């Protein structure tokens, strides 16, 4: 049985895949390019399976480790093959042409847009969008576990994500309903602009957003 | 000469006032109730002056240490008396009736609404909205200096706020134009919901939002 399917073969797939293996989850990597999926699966460890996105995902948790537009395409394309699954949306729908806003309208979020495209019976959970890929590989930043902000409307799906995050050595923070993705995406957009700003010379896509006590 | 005027006599006035004294700034506290202003000034130290909001603020930096509605009233009421000043908006315009949204519309911010009410020649800088009052008194959380996120359209005013924050022992992060207040206010709203959530028993209006490296 596969616990988690990650769709995507890029840096975020590597980061979350590393955490999934650390959490002891059985993992499948699916990519449009199955050779890239095979390479990432091999890198993550021998027990990780792989395939192409021509196949339906086997995991009950499906991580959309894709840019926003690709995530929408994949969810719409899979249709009913995602019924019953919890889809983890990690996207930051930044308008990279201006780097001054999101591409989603104020008052909504990428997570809500993806949820609107998902088949009946599939639920969306926002998570991991404030964590950069490299920090996910390490699981920590400045020697403290990453905070993973989680938003969703389905309690069972959120509990599965909280369990995964906890077992992965990270610190889950359930911020409430899926519409809280608006604020998670908005703030991470700001954090991303700081990485690209030469004024912050220590911020190089290596920071972690943390609620300290 | 007075460097900083704080309008308000509550917990945020105490927190920012403590930092102003630590930064070596000359400070004035103005309150609707001048006795409350006097008491806070005495608590902060002998060199801190005080008065009522019947008087115009003397400082070149004017901290609106007030709830959103009161901040709007004060700015509109002072009118031209604020010309030439940098107004620091610290507000979080949370809809406390629902605790599910802000009272400002999506696509704007309290900071921008306050700026629209300010007299010509007054500029608004968003700062301190993600810092809770108690952490400002200490200046640190978990033994690290607080991050103070700063947004504004006037470079000179922002530089004055950055200087104040730095001298106060805090870590300034200039996130860009005033419209970035949208994201700062949105995320702090989420952080505030966590403080009120019994699930997070260590979060009691004592947390600090930090960009760790």
How is this structure best described in words?
The structure is a homodimer of 213-residue chains. Chain A has 213 residues and is of the alpha/beta class. Chain A has one domain: NAD(P)-binding Rossmann-like Domain (Rossmann fold, 3-Layer(aba) Sandwich), CATH 3.40.50.720. Chain A is 36% helix and 22% strand. Chain A is built from seven helices and eleven strands. The model of chain A has no long low-confidence stretch (mean pLDDT 97). At the A-B interface, strand 10, helix 7 and strand 11 of A face strand 10, helix 7 and strand 11 of B. Chains A, B: Keywords: Oxidoreductase. Chains A, B: InterPro entries: NAD(P)-bd_dom_sf (IPR036291), P5C_Rdtase_cat_N (IPR028939), STEAP_metalloreductase (IPR051267). Chains A, B: It comes from Leifsonia kafniensis. Chains A, B: This is NAD(P)-binding domain-containing protein.
């Amino acid at each position: 049985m596969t616990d988690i399917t990650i769709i995507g073969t890029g840096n975020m797939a590597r980061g979350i895949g590393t955490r999934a293996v650390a959490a002891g989850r059985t993992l499948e990597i699916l990519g449009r390019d199955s050779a890239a999926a095979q390479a990432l699966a091999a890198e993550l460890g021998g027990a990780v399976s792989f395939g192409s996105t021509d196949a339906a995902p086997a995991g009950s948790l499906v991580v959309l480790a894709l840019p926003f537009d690709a995530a929408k395409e994949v969810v719409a394309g899979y249709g009913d093959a995602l019924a019953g699954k919890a889809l983890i949306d990690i996207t930051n729908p930044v308008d990279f042409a201006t780097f001054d806003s999101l591409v989603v309208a104020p008052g909504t979020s990428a997570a809500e847009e993806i949820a609107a495209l998902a088949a009946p019976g599939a639920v969306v959970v926002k998570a991991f969008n404030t964590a950069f890929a490299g920090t996910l590989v390490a699981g920590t930043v400045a020697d403290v576990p990453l905070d993973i902000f989680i938003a969703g409307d389905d309690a069972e799906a959120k509990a599965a994500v909280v369990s995964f995050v906890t077992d992965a050595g990270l610190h889950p923070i359930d911020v409430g309903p899926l519409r809280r993705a608006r604020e998670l995406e908005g703030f991470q957009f700001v954090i991303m602009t700081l990485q690209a700003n030469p004024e912050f010379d220590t911020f190089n896509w290596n920071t972690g957003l943390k609620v300290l006590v």
